[in-house]
Amino acid sequence: MSATLELSLTVNGETRTATVAPLARLLDVLREAFGLTGTKEGCGEGECGACSVILDGELVNACLVPASQAQGAVVTTVEGLAARDGTPSPLQQAFLECGGAQCGICTPGMLVAGQRFLDGGAPATDAAVREAIAGNLCRCTGYAKIVDSIQRAAATPSPPPGERAGVRGPGDR
Amino acid sequence: MIADIPVTSVRSLDEAYAVLARRAAGLRVLAGGTDLMVQIQARVGLERIGHILDIWKVSELRHVTLDGGTLRVGALATYTDLLRSEAVRAALPALAQVAREVGAWAIQNRGTLGGNVCNASPAGDTLPILIAAGATFVVGGPRGERRIAAEEFFVAYRKTALAADELLLRAELPALAPGERLVYRKVGTRRAQSISRASLAVRARVEAGAFRGVRIAAGCVAPVPLRCRATEAALEGGGPGAAAFAAARAALDGEIRPIDDLRATAAYRRRVAGNVLEQLLAAF
Ligand SMILES: Cc1cc2nc3c(=O)[nH]c(=O)nc-3n(C[C@H](O)[C@H](O)[C@H](O)COP(=O)(O)OP(=O)(O)OC[C@H]3O[C@@H](n4cnc5c(N)ncnc54)[C@H](O)[C@@H]3O)c2cc1C
Ligand code: FES
Ligand code: FES
Question: How far apart are CA A141 and CA A11, in angstroms?
Fold first, then answer.
């Protein structure tokens, strides 16, 4: 007999609902129930950060969050970073300009982790940026261009969060 | 099948105790899921899980307070809560340090102190600190509450003193007194996201040239996180110095029981544990 959960949460500013297994991974709910395939699966065990999303203001690995714990939550995925009209966010623009993406498999997670770092407002020193993305693995870039991208975005004035599809989270470390 | 496992999500201890009182077969507690979700996905012990009690939103277990000389850390306090906490920085800064070294941001946001304790891995990074600090665990269930010293909580490899109907509620830690220090070091392969090969925590003060109140605990060098009483005894009452440190190192080598595994050899763990002990003692 399969267990079910009537899940309702806010994803990138929109209310979404689905009937899922309570231990279904938020990663699978986003990709399969909601068609939001920007969030990637790398390792499936919390090591790589490809599945990074922002849940109630905090960076999490969507592969480790059961649906039961996303009930009523506010989630931002990589699809929620651009403006509502599709204009890339300053961070996405910086990734384009600095060559922050090569094969691209880590990029959605890097963008989400990078955005959470920028939202916190801490000075974008090398050490601080590297700590913020320490849970995100990249097999291609050697990280320097990703760090450059996040630092460039930190130096760019950000549009007010209301203009982003996702919802800005509170707090800082 | 994972999809068949029912989950009861509770928001208060009363609700949690009501579920525990029913003693459903294979009941398993879920906190931040950073250990349990990995085990479930890997189908490790899945056949033994009949029902999940999801306590993540029990807010009364998510607190960090300093009251008189006692730091109280709720079982659901996350690493992020610990590293942001003024109380932790004032009472036991090593606990903020270790929180920053566990996993990376996403793990720190979800992993809890209670999960680290109840997962009871000999590599659990907070465990040597809790034992060296002299922590007491308060556990509770429908039959009431009891207190267990941290060093008595880990009874065998990955087995704790918790009964099937009990939850860990909080850890209570004596804050550092003036002149006292608690130092900690873990050795892994890199800074972020790596499982420790060896870790050590030392609590002590030096008074009139002699070590006093020495408490030492080590991780990854025995089936359980280990209080190192012989090493403590080798140091207690003596002065810091090369001879004392060598004696302590020999005592440590005599009481740890490391194993070879895929992450490191026993011989390597012995060397590292001894080196880390000497480095930590040099800080006094
Ligand atoms: C990528 C990655 C990196 C990691 N890095 C580290 C590291 O550097 N150092 C380290 O020590 N650990 C590390 N971990 C392991 C893990 O994050 C920690 O052990 C964490 O503290 C577990 O807490 P949790 O709330 O997620 O536990 P859960 O997974 O929810 O639970 C763990 C176990 O404890 C039980 N449990 C939890 N809370 C209670 C309670 N209150 N009462 C009774 N039983 C309870 C559960 O039933 C389960 O058996 C890492 C994990 C991942 C995936
Ligand atoms: S897929 Fe989630 S961390 Fe790798
Ligand atoms: S760009 Fe290929 S893994 Fe990062």
Answer: 30
